[in-house]
Write a structure and sequence with these properties.
The complex is a heterodimer of chains A (about 675) and B (about 260). Chain A is α/β, with parallel strands linked by helices. Chain A is built from 21 helices and 22 strands. The longest helix of chain A is centred in the middle third of the chain and has 18 residues. In chain B, helix 3 packs parallel to helix 5. Chain B is α/β, with parallel strands linked by helices. Classes of the chains: A alpha/beta (about 675), B alpha/beta (about 260).
């Protein structure tokens, strides 16, 4: 992350990053050019004082210095800097509040600055008070704008659309309105704007409204986030020591705000997302300042990467936009521009995040993997294999099943898992266990087991920790059976599992099966429906068995529960590829991929014994999991019209209507 | 009409009006008045929980919403609101865990504490949290494992440690200077005096699973990302949850460090 580049980041996904930009260091200066000079604005910023222990104030400008708002040399330097860290355009706040007859003065200032870099405009019709004072979603009531005033603003904007540097979406000039709810006669105002814009020859504008957390902005083409507006962040007032007893401001958690915004469910409308490097109004509000603590380049980088990945998944073409607030809201402690303390760290974090997001979702590796075990991050040198010596083979009939078990830190459970495989009524079994760099005694337990095992071929492969998906792939490269069955190192098979699954697979002419599951606790006792979560889980799984096809239920939930519940023909891997590098949902991704090539046979008997303990439950779809689910569903739906389930027109309509009913229509290809 | 003579439904109604109007502090006061008169009043308990969430007071919101669910378990809205606050809390923890690996470049691997301590003339051990008996054992292990000839022990003014160590006191210009600074715990921020300490090396000892605090301390101790810091971890189970390769410290009197790999 510390590697410096001097060239512009080229986005491979078409994603564009737009940073909000305030003309002048303070919003007073921005809102009213006569109010204060640039030096006054900087004075306010650089003379701010800490309100509590550890409070980072003042923010002293770094390499760009205390520039004047009209300094074109600085604006050129800003453009170079922004471009080299992956920013594609600035979105200038135009804080016209009707105090002057026309916003031309403000817009001309923007136009003079914006010669060197793409730009667009956000009409900050809230006045400066709204988000300075309102850290949470409690927006301050603002002045309303008549339809005539709104039209005056928009008409003053029209000449800017002729500028080649003005940002467009599919040829449409983008305009953001900070508070659509303050515009009277919104529908007719927007219609007039669109008409005026078309008449001027600039085409239909791409109108974006800032909206509070819930709901879209009616009449707009998209909605944009504008943190710190959004969810209420947690107050951390009690965790700091105030320096000044007169301090009456608010101290809020940056990470709480970011986490809640990132935790939003995928909305049913176009949402352009925004990340924020920090927020602190102490320069303006002094002892009444609102300060977000806990911001860091790393947390900001994560925020940017998440919204960039989501934009790539959810939006298409030139609508793939994300925003950063802000390039230079210095008096709100909200700036990407370097300061003395952090230098370019936030810019570096931004660029790294964009680069990561542009790499896209992990893909399933082509099968067979190229050269065992060189595909693995662990590499040959880090791999060790221990095999059992079969001196008393059991009589075995039927096709050979290669049972593959990825094992990690399950010293307490792995013996029971292996015992359950050896106790199968289907005898033709080979077992491959991949110890994925366990830090407990799992490796030693496995070696000991292999040393004592005389009845079955048991291979224990030790590798450096590389994740469950890699361990499964690694194990499957050693598989020689016609069928592959997986099992987690903390779970168990019912004795008839393989026999029953193979029977069902043959009956249904399928190449993939999974069964119902029973749930046990750490000590192996069955967990009943008194456990609310397990009861919900059972309901979800049961839905999968009732559905016309398991694929229906799989669009909402992994009804197979876990990769350990998979039994499939080894040659299926040639079509699906191996398991992809999703941390949690590689199993769900794989079963959906398999559904393109074979019917899924759901065996309605609890033949898989899933152990719930410690952190292996999946009661909540956490931040990381939610992104993975979006990634795998996007991939699944990408070719959905070629899915065998949709080959029959009646089935097709039924399935698509089900998908729409589940609110998943956003995943359907346009 | 004075609140004392108003009917409770009216008081709730007025509080609700303040809440809807965005006057959250007033709404909180009015709901609190209701609860003074009737601590089991469901609507006030429930709505005050919602108001406190909107004011960022999550602990209070959780307490009230849990109480509301107890009072009327069948009111789905209270349960949903409780879930919203619980999820908000959980999400922040998740975010911290996701962010932690990004700080890995700032954390250097410490193979032997004794080597680190030997390269400096003085080791300052700063107690940054209240110490449990087990923590005390870990502190002893650090002193023994470092083999340092000069160890000065300090405590953060906020840490209610019983140790007979001077508290860092900026007004008296009493704080560590130079050498190896070992921060035991992550509870308090050293940032106020850290610049003046001019540490040659900095080592963070992690004792609890608090990713948010760990994020903050790594940033601070690394001088906002401008240098690397060392890290030790008290206990194997905790080390497994960290995204860094760290040396594991075992709470014994003898030096028993071993590779965390």
């Amino acid at each position: 992350m510390s590697i410096e580049h001097s060239v512009a980041v080229r986005s491979t996904s078409g994603l564009r990053v737009i940073a909000f930009y305030r003309v002048g260091a303070s919003r007073q200066a921005s809102a009213d050019p006569t109010h204060s000079s640039a030096s006054d604005s900087w004075l306010r910023v650089t003379q701010a004082t800490a309100n509590f222990r550890g409070h980072y104030q003042p923010h002293v400008p770094g390499e760009l210095g205390r520039y004047a708002a009209s300094d074109t040399h600085t604006s050129e330097a800003q453009a170079v800097l922004a471009r080299s860290y992956g920013i594609d355009a600035f979105c200038y706040f135009c804080a016209w509040t009707g105090a002057t007859p026309s916003p031309e003065i403000e817009l001309n200032r923007i136009r003079n600055l914006a010669t060197a870099f793409p730009y667009c405009v956000c009409w900050e019709n809230t006045g400066p008070a709204r988000d300075l004072s309102a850290a949470s979603s409690q927006a301050m009531p603002g002045r309303r704008y008549s339809a005539a005033e709104s039209v005056v603003f928009f008409r003053a904007l029209l000449p800017l659309f002729a500028d080649a540097q003005y940002v467009r979406v599919n040829g449409r000039p983008i305009v953001i309105v900070a508070a659509p709810e303050l515009l009277d006669d919104l529908a007719s105002t927007l219609a007039t704007w669109r008409e005026d814009c078309r008449r001027s020859g600039a085409g239909d504008p791409y109108l974006v409204g800032v909206s509070p957390v819930r709901g879209t902005s009616p009449g707009f083409d998209a909605t944009v986030e504008m943190p710190p507006l959004g969810f209420p962040p947690e107050s951390v007032q009690g965790a700091v020591t105030a320096v000044d007893p007169l301090f009456r401001g608010e101290i809020l958690s940056y990470r709480s705000l970011a986490a809640q915004l990132l935790g939003r469910a995928r909305p049913g409308y176009k949402l352009l997302r925004t990340a924020m490097p920090g927020w602190d109004t102490a320069p303006v509000d002094g002892l009444q300042g609102v300060t977000f603590v806990g911001a860091s380049p790393e947390a900001f980088g994560y925020w940017v990467e998440r919204i960039a990945r989501e934009a790539i998944l959810r939006l298409h073409g030139e609508e793939r936009l994300i925003f950063v607030r802000s390039w230079n809201e210095w008096d709100a402690g909200c700036h990407l521009e370097p300061d003395e303390r952090h230098g370019r760290q936030y810019l570096v974090a931004l660029r790294y995040a964009i680069e990561q997001a542009n790499q896209g979702a992990p893909k399933r590796p082509a099968w067979p993997l190229g050269g065992f075990p060189s595909h693995s991050p662990a590499g040959v040198a880090q791999t060790r294999i221990v095999r059992s010596r079969v001196t008393q083979p059991l009589s075995a009939h039927g096709p050979t099943v290669s049972v593959v078990m990825p094992a990690y830190n399950h010293e307490r459970f792995v013996t029971q898992a292996l015992d359950s495989v050896f106790a199968q009524t289907h005898g033709a079994v080979e077992i491959i266990v991949v110890d994925d760099g366990s830090r407990d005694a799992t490796g030693a337990v496995l070696d000991d087991y292999a040393g004592r095992c005389a009845t079955h071929p048991l291979t224990v492969l030790h590798q450096q920790n590389a994740g469950a998906h890699d361990a499964i792939n690694h194990g499957m490269t050693l598989a020689r059976g016609e069928w592959v069955a997986l099992i987690n190192s903390d779970d168990m098979y019912a004795a008839t599992r393989l026999e029953s699954c193979l029977k069902t697979l043959a009956e249904r002419k399928a190449a993939f099966a999974f069964s119902a599951a029973s749930f046990v606790n750490e000590t192996g006792e069955v967990i009943g429906n008194e456990d609310r979560y397990v009861a919900q889980l059972r309901d979800e799984v049961a839905r999968g068995f009732r559905a016309p096809d398991p694929v229906y239920a799989l669009t909402r939930f992994n009804v197979a529960i876990s990769s350990g519940n998979f039994v499939f023909k080894r040659e299926l891997l040639n079509a699906t590829g191996g398991f992809c590098a999703l941390r949690v949902c590689h199993d769900w991704d794989f079963i959906l991929a398999a559904s393109y090539y074979t019917p899924l046979a759901a065996v309605d008997q609890p033949l898989y014994i899933y152990r719930m303990h410690g952190a292996n439950t999946f009661a909540d779809r956490g931040l990381a999991t939610r992104l993975e689910i979006e990634q795998l569903l996007s991939r699944f739906f990408q070719d959905i019209y070629r899915h065998p389930l949709l080959s029959d027109p009646a089935n097709r309509e039924r399935f698509l209507s089900y998908v729409r009913g589940c609110g998943l229509d956003g995943f359907l290809p346009v | 009409m004075p609140a004392s003579r108003q009917a409770i439904p009216d008081m709730v109604q007025m509080a609700f009006a303040a809440q809807v109007g965005g006057r959250l502090a007033e709404a909180a006061e009015r709901y609190a008045e209701v609860l003074k008169r009737d601590p089991s009043q469901f609507d006030a308990t429930h709505m005050l929980g919602v108001v406190q969430y909107h004011r960022g007071r999550f602990d209070e919101a959780l307490r009230l919403l849990k109480r509301a669910v107890e009072l009327q378990p069948n009111v789905g809205q209270a349960r949903e609101n409780l879930d919203i606050v619980q999820t908000a809390r959980r999400r922040e923890g998740e975010l911290c865990r996701e962010v932690l690996p990004r700080l890995a470049p700032l954390v250097m691997r410490v193979d032997k504490l004794v080597d680190l301590a030997a390269s400096v003339c003085v080791m300052h051990l700063v107690i940054m949290q209240s110490l449990s008996a087990q923590d005390e054992a870990f502190v002893e292990s650090i002193v023994v494992a470092s083999g340092a000839t000069q160890v000065r022990t300090w405590k953060d003014p906020g840490a209610s440690s019983d140790r007979n160590a001077p508290a860092v006191d900026l007004s008296a210009q009493s704080h560590p200077v130079g050498g190896l600074i070992v921060f035991f715990g992550t509870e308090f921020s050293p940032i106020e005096w850290f610049d003046r300490a001019r540490a040659e090396l900095c080592l963070l000892v992690v004792t609890r699973d608090e990713p948010g605090l760990l994020l903050d301390r790594i940033r601070e101790c690394s001088a906002e990302g401008s240098r690397q810091i060392g890290m030790l971890c008290c206990g194997e189970a905790l080390a497994r949850r960290l995204p860094f390769t760290v040396e594991v410290l075992v709470a014994q009197a003898a030096p028993t460090t071993r590779d965390g790999q």
